[in-house]
DUF917 domain-containing protein (Nonomuraea glycinis), 355 residues
Amino acid sequence: MEDIPALARGCAVLGTGGGGDVRTGALAARRAMETYGEVPLVRLADLPEDALVVPLSGIGAPTVGHEMIYGEDEPRRVVEEVERIFGRPPTAIMSSEIGGSNGVAPVAWAAQLGLPLLDADGMGRAFPEVQMISMHVAGLPADLVIMSDIVGNVVTIRPIDGLWSERLARAVCVAAGSHALMADYILTAAQARGAVIEGTVTRALEVGRSTEGAAEPLAALQRELGAARLITGKLTDVERRTTGGFVRGTATIEGTGDDRGRTLRLELQNENLVAIEDGEVRAMVPDLITVVDTETAGAIQTESLRYGQRVAVLAWPCDPLWRTPKGLETAGPRAFGYDLEYVPVEESVKEESRG
């Protein structure tokens, strides 16, 4: 239980602005562990080949997640449907995305269900769309999605591919009030090998612990991530709207101190997608872009961005899986409608800006 604060901090950073506010996930995790006991963290190598792993995540607009909090019934209903379909109970729960609340809340779900948590996820960060997951890149079929909402509905979808899984699941999510719990790409341990990103819960803990007791938290975080600092400044404009089950918009940061006279604009779709300065792209998906408080180095989710906040914008490389042709097709800039050729962040930023 003492690991929850560090896990929450790390997941907030890895969430690149999305995945939901970690505070609600951390509270739920702590309460569940107090009630049901500690959650074992297991490696994929610890599981038998036929072990059934259920990836769980919230789907919808993070702004709605502030008010529509998960109860204990949603994960139970999803797992009951998994057991009905597969004829056996799952062996472990896995976070679909390690970013944001979706990286922390699975601790609560695992505790409630009496299952261990797998030290892995499907992104190594957060992405806004259902098909933007490592299992899709690895070629596993997206032939089953199970969703449950706060009022008790359970929906089982049999999509023909990953893109249809996004369209259909998003429609159900919007009908449920733009927030629901979802299991997809349910797989065995054998199928998971090479199809998930391993060690990401441990990585989130390392990121979260990097600022504990640090004299300069921002510098400590930047070193831990190997990140470039794109700008340090003040948020001067935030345009944000909730539509189609997403939070979309832009945020503008005007530089202060050594960055005075510079302006950086972030393009948002739940997550920070592209960072632009003077018409030049400084960083872009699938690399990670996170806004953090300059004093605490705590990550600020897109739904919490406010005028006047003093922030730094950090960017660092994604997992190599996302730089493959299939990874870029799935979650590169063109997957979000940007007519941009992907350039790795370490090539697009000035070397002197690196920590």
DSSP finds twelve helices and 17 strands in the chain.
